[in-house]
Design brief:
Blueprint: H1 7-35, H2 40-66, H3 70-94
Length: 98
């Protein structure tokens, strides 16, 4: 009998794949960005690495928060927005806009 893959299993493997790719990309980009620290290219690479981590963390965290009470789901969304704003303001500061 062939093993059938459920939709839930497929979603879980997608989440794991996103987390792995985000970790790998972030590690490589942080090293390259560290070598270019202080330049605009370094600032952009730092943003890309942070966004990759955001994607890698957001999916598994959402899967976890989805099973919790409403208050924890609100905490999830607030933390996600704060992280995204922190990345944005970090780039603006890196470009010396603010």
């Amino acid at each position: 009998m062939a093993k059938q893959r459920t939709e839930r299993a497929a979603r879980r493997s997608f989440v794991k794949l996103c987390a792995f790719i985000a970790l790998f990309l972030s590690a490589v980009i942080f090293v390259i960005g560290g070598l270019l620290a202080g330049s605009k290219a370094g600032t952009i690479l730092d943003l890309v690495a942070k966004v990759a981590l955001l994607i890698g963390i957001a999916f598994p965290a959402y899967e976890y928060a989805r099973g919790l009470k409403k208050g924890w789901r609100i905490v999830y969304w607030v933390a996600l927005v704060i992280y995204a704003l922190g990345c944005t303001f970090g780039v603006l500061k890196g470009f010396q806009i603010i």
